[in-house]
Specification:
The structure is a single chain. With 290 residues, this protein is an alpha/beta fold. Helix content is 35%, strand content 17%. The chain contains ten helices and 14 strands. Helix 3 packs across helix 4, helix 4 runs parallel beside helix 5 and helix 8 packs antiparallel against helix 9. It is globular.
């Protein structure tokens, strides 16, 4: 099968690595600009525009593609979905890679066009296009030295720096949100590299459910505890100060407390032939020497 990955950041590269090293699928990378460092890996890079006025050209470049894995968001992803449908692409995985869509609030400050993308895919599903969301909870790379941004992941999220989410390992500080049940929130987590392996394995599945949860669970640290009242107070304070980035950090913590990044029944783990790396092992390897 010919597989197209839309995006060239750290997560896109992890997925490309998983596909190129563990499958025989033909891989192309869709990028807004040439990427010599990816071409040097032997990957085919196709320069595209996601402007709606270039949708016809994008559909032409998707001719013969069987599956699209998107790591782009917003209006660009909508154009990509429309072009994929026009080109007859049979499978599409949108840029989800977090928690389950069903438990997100209607007014979601963290949405970044995800709801619109799923609505569009549901429309095309009725016409024969399969889609699935790879539900992987929180990426380990949030806790890398320098955070996700240092891994070129979530560069436009506004909360990709080290310490923006729950833990700042360099400063040895952590925050623990408590859920409505009065218990510390649980989160499900996966490394970007293992996400790539999961995606590679899923491409060959006979059918795609609308969600493919994958992961291991856990994570603890040194501790400032936050309940619903304290988090809402922090959010109001950030709004009063006009601190957008701080608002996103608090909203992410509230979403964690409400279970957005946790799920009890991963269904992809049993379908793949490898053991994901535990958070503890990943953390020790990543921070060795720091």
């Amino acid at each position: 099968m010919r597989v197209a990955i839309a995006g060239s950041n750290g997560l896109a590269c992890a997925i490309a690595e998983g596909i190129s090293t563990s499958t025989y699928h033909q891989l192309i990378i869709l990028s807004r600009a040439p990427k010599p460092h990816l071409t040097a890996k032997g990957w085919q890079v196709v320069v595209v525009s996601y402007a709606e006025t270039h949708r016809q050209d994008l559909a032409f470049k998707l001719a013969g593609v069987g599956a699209v894995i998107s790591v782009i968001s917003g209006p660009a992803q909508i154009t990509l979905i429309d072009a994929a449908a026009q080109a007859g692409v049979r499978r599409f995985a949108p840029a989800e890679f977090e928690g389950q869509a069903a438990i997100r609030p209607q007014q979601d400050a963290l949405d970044r066009g995800k709801r619109a993308a799923l609505t569009r895919l549901q429309h095309y599903q009725a016409r024969g296009m399969q889609y699935t969301s790879f539900v992987c909870g929180i990426l380990y790379e949030r806790f890398s030295p320098g955070g996700m941004n240092a891994c070129r992941i979530g560069l436009r999220s506004g909360i990709g720096a080290e310490g923006d989410y729950l833990m700042n390992i360099t400063r040895k500080k952590g925050q623990i949100p408590y859920g409505p049940n009065g218990q510390p929130a649980a989160i499900s987590m996966t490394s970007a590299k293992d996400v790539g392996k999961f995606v590679a394995a899923a491409i060959s599945l006979q059918t795609w459910p609308t969600e493919l949860p994958e992961v291991i669970r856990g994570a603890n640290f040194e501790r400032a505890q936050h309940n619903s009242q304290s988090m809402q107070s922090a959010l109001q304070l950030a709004r009063s100060a006009g601190a957008i980035q701080e608002q996103l950090c608090v909203i992410s913590m509230i979403a964690t407390a409400n279970g957005r990044f946790d799920f009890a029944t991963p269904n992809l783990n049993s379908m793949v032939n490898f053991q994901p790396k535990t958070f503890q092992v990943w953390l020790q390897e990543t921070w060795a020497g720091h």
